[in-house]
Amino acid sequence: MRLPEQIEVLIVGAGPAGSHLATRLAEGGREVLIVEKRSEIGNPVRCAEGVELPAILATIGEPEPAWVGTPVYGGWGESPSGNQVRYDAGEKVGYVLNRRLFDRGLANRAVKAGAKVCTRVQVLSAEREAAGWQVALRQDGETKTLHCRLLVGADGVEGQVARWAGLSGSWPLRRAHSCAQAHVVNYPVEERPLLRFYLGEEVTPGGYAWAFPTGNGGANIGVSIDSSRDGIELAEFYLRKLLREKLPTVKVVELNNGSIPALNSPRKIVADNLVLVGDAAGHSEPLSGGGIANALQGAELAAEVLLAAFAADSLTKKSLSDYPKRWAKGVGKSLKRYARLRRLYLHLTDRDFDELISVMNQQMERWREGRKGSGVISLLTSVVTNSPGLLAKLRYLL
User: Fold this and answer.
1) What are the chain's domains?
2) Checking phi first, is residue 146 left (phi over 0); if not, alpha (psi -120 to 50) or beta?
């Protein structure tokens, strides 16, 4: 597809946030174009691909079967000393997606709704003009100019749209995860697959490691480390160490790496004739780095605000301010709690992780006995009873 000279809405990035927003805006009668720098939407995959069931059902509904690698039924964790905790809900609580097909499927939905998608397009710059934005792009080696009324940054943590709008600079090291991940085969197959997590300084300093089954003996195995300690090279070192020591029978098919935002406070996500969504908006969860569900929820909310703004014929920063306000009152409130938890997490020692796994095991036993209590309250009660040291550190969150 050749680029037009003018479009009502230009979305930079064909990830879940960009495509879902495009679908909603196109369904609302807006003229939408998504541009994607990669030649193939959804590839390469830089994601563990896990998503919780409620969030995905509330935004896109039940995913198509081809988009799902496997349903998952709970989780399994291991402390530095080898203590383990296991939770099996007995019913599916989420999915490990096939992100290649998931991302393409969402882009196809956008096209069916009336949006246009153009791949292999690099956005070079964006400048304000009276009616919106003038954007320079390169397609097939040729530089072109496009004018749009609304510019959407869905271009991820490495994106430039936010910078061109004057909304942000580069990510501080303490505000990101450095990650490395391998897709493997020969992974153990379970009747009810669980997400696996490994904790401890010797496993992954300032972060955690994961093993997410993708079905048919495949899995995504990765590590996340505190970016301020080192970069991607250290993450890859700990990934190879994890594979060698914890999962020696698997075979690596593909290796990739990247960074994930871990913000302590919300970033600016609107300006005149501009919004940010997904990782570009800093909407990933700061503790785990998970971002698919938040990307979809943010795009859903942005669409509601934008359609109202278009109906009122006003795309000023003030007209779009309901987007960050409503986000802050909803999902954003939980992200603040996770940011505080991450600050605590960075102070935990291997001994703390061992104690935490023990406390969680006690809590699981209470749940199995039908004495669930009130979630966080019952967990804190267990901490008070069994680990005064952890309690002292938990006060950091209060």
Assistant:
1) 6-45+100-172+265-340 (3.50.50.60), 347-397 (no CATH)
2) beta
